[in-house]
């Protein structure tokens, strides 16, 4: 077993590994332990009582963080005509149809979010094997297949975070930067947890949200008392 380095041991000092902290306490700890030379991302992980191998236990959705994510999100939009103009006006980084298809098929994927109008989904469908594994395939369930491309681009640029449960039943996402005020991080976390809570699938039995932890990019994880995050 590899030995822990001095930095890791130091970062864990003052954090009780078995204690469940309130979200306010946890965020204070995360910010105090973020010592990297860059603005680290604050991340949340939620263990859910679901088995995503079953269709009726899949968890997927989108959350509009009230204080943004702190990320610069590059957005690509598949659209034509007036909708393409709307996308450009809203600040989309790449807009196109067949020409954008060729760019992506050529392996050039310089975007973090992909949006498409419904009429272009047959075209975008050809890119399933390219976009799917990267989590970039447009989907109406998370608002990325829509005629309101202006609104979708604005949401993506403004801090909309998509989430999807992994095989182990875990949902995780970046919800801000350590440079954010503590209260803004708490508000973002509560908004994200609320979105995940509302996405509870019909097949989930027993306790849905089982464990929550927060961390920064290079920092240690801090366990959180779920009741301090979830709204009544």
From TrEMBL:
A biological process term (GO) from this entry: translation
Superkingdom of source: Bacteria
GO MF annotation terms: rRNA binding; structural constituent of ribosome; tRNA binding
GO CC, any one term: cytosolic large ribosomal subunit
InterPro entries: Ribosom_uL1_bac-type (IPR005878), Ribosomal_uL1 (IPR002143), Ribosomal_uL1-like (IPR023674), Ribosomal_uL1/biogenesis (IPR028364), Ribosomal_uL1_3-a/b-sand (IPR016095), Ribosomal_uL1_CS (IPR023673)
Alphabetical keyword list: Repressor, Ribonucleoprotein, Ribosomal protein, RNA-binding, rRNA-binding, Translation regulation, tRNA-binding
Record function comment: Binds directly to 23S rRNA. The L1 stalk is quite mobile in the ribosome, and is involved in E site tRNA release. Protein L1 is also a translational repressor protein, it controls the translation of the L11 operon by binding to its mRNA.
PANTHER family, sorted: 54S RIBOSOMAL PROTEIN L1, MITOCHONDRIAL (PTHR36427), LARGE RIBOSOMAL SUBUNIT PROTEIN UL1M (PTHR36427:SF3)
Assembly and interaction partners: Part of the 50S ribosomal subunit.
HAMAP family: Ribosomal_uL1_B (MF_01318_B)
Similarity annotation: Belongs to the universal ribosomal protein uL1 family.
Protein name, per record: Large ribosomal subunit protein uL1
Source organism (scientific name): Methylobacterium gnaphalii
């Amino acid at each position: 077993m590899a030995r822990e380095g001095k930095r890791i041991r130091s970062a864990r000092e003052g954090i009780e590994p078995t204690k469940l902290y309130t979200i306010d306490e946890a965020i204070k700890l995360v910010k105090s332990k973020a010592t990297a030379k860059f603005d680290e991302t604050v991340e949340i992980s939620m263990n859910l009582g679901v088995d995503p191998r079953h269709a009726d236990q899949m968890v997927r959705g989108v959350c509009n963080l009230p204080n943004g994510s702190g990320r610069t999100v590059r957005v690509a939009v598949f659209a034509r005509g007036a909708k393409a103009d709307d996308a450009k006006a809203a600040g989309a980084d790449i807009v196109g149809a067949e020409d954008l298809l060729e760019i992506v098929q050529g392996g050039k994927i310089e975007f973090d979010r992909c949006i498409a109008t419904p009429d272009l989904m047959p075209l975008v469908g050809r890119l399933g094997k390219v976009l799917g594994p990267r989590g970039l395939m447009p989907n109406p369930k998370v608002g990325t297949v829509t005629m309101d491309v202006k609104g979708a681009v604005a949401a993506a640029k403004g801090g909309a975070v998509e989430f999807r449960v992994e095989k182990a039943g875990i949902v995780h996402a970046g919800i801000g930067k350590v440079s954010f005020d503590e209260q803004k991080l708490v508000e973002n976390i509560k908004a994200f947890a609320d979105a995940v809570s509302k996405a509870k699938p019909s097949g989930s039995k027993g306790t849905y949200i089982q464990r929550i932890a927060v961390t920064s990019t290079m920092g240690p994880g801090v366990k959180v008392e779920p009741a301090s995050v979830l709204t009544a």
